[in-house]
Amino acid sequence: MTAVEKLTVLLCGYEIIPRGVSIRGGGDRFIISVPICAYLLEKREGLVVFDTGFDSSLLRDPALREEHFAQHGWEAPVVWPCHERLTQLAEIGAAPEDVRHVILSHAHLDHTGNLKHFTHAKVWMQQAERDFAFAHPPSAGVIPRDLDKPGIDWQWVEGDYEIMPGLTLLATRGHTPGHQSALVTLPETGKALLVGDVGDWLQNFDEEILPGEAADDEQALASIRRINRMRRELNATLFICHDPWLLQTQKLVPEFYG
Fold first, then answer.
1. Beta-carbon neighbour count of residue 249 at 10 Å?
2. CA-CA to 158 of 20 to 30 Å: which in 18, 53, 65, 245?
3. How far is CA 164 from the centre of its chain?
């Protein structure tokens, strides 16, 4: 029996990155536009959000754009109005206050940016990610203001943890010290694996290739292999956050997987 009725894919914008960021050894010559995805799970008692995407206010403020992107030589993400989180919630008749739980796969800025809209919800993160998320000075790729919000009801967990029937957090360390994924059971689709940044592309899993950077290469490869085992044994569908080709085959809001 599962408490999860629907899974919706939210496309929250694009990052412009060298191929080598997603595929180890892929080099800097080829520049790829990769999606930023997040997921919405519907249940009778409210909504669950898996990752919150990127905060587009960093793009509209010239000083913040300079601080977080230009001075590092990084291209700024692309977020159009149709990619905004609240716009997509409204497409299915939902509002931020309908969200009861937020799962953060990890603390990087393209996964935490809209947490500010859900500070009333329980926010789930691995205990092992906490030091990374709140380090001083901040770790690369982490924006403290995304996470340091008063009143957040943090739910710190260690390892695998069932939040509710049909929704289990999976410890998939490696990309960051406390990265986590989620195993979802849907009434018709069956098992779904929301893998965050365990691998950016399907190629990472099919060929067991690491992404460009990892906090721990050994753990990162073990997490790819763990997801692959679950994918085979459970006949699970993979939902991969940054794969530009796989995304084009998937249903996007307002469509859903039931």
1. 7
2. 53
3. 19
- How confident is the model over 28-74, as pLDDT tens digits? 999 999 999 999 999 988 999 999 999 999 889 888 888 878 676 77
Picking from 183, 50, 160, the residue whose alpha carbon sits closest to that of residue 105 is: 50
Measure the CA dihedral 145/146/148/149, to 10°.
110
Of the candidates 212, 195, 242, 207, which has an alpha carbon nearest to the alpha carbon of residue 18?
Answer: 212
- Contact call for residues 23 and 107 (beta carbons, < 8 A): no
Per DSSP, the residues of 151-184 read T-EEEEE-S-EEEETTEEEEE--SSSTT-EEEEE
The CATH number given to 6-247 is 3.60.15.10
CA distance 111 to 12: 10
What residue type is assigned to position 248 of the chain?
A: Q
Q: pTM score, two decimals?
A: 0.96
Residue 65 has a CB neighbour count (10 Å cut-off) of 15
Partner residues linked to 46 by β-bridges: 43
Ranges of residues in the chain whose predicted pLDDT is under 70: 70, 72
Contact, 77 vs 13, CB < 8 A? yes
DSSP bridge partners of 39? 9, 50
Nearest-angstrom CA–CA distance, 123 and 106: 12
Q: How many residues does the chain have?
A: 258
CA dist 225 and 174 (Å) reads 12
* CA pair distance 45, 3, nearest whole angstrom: 9
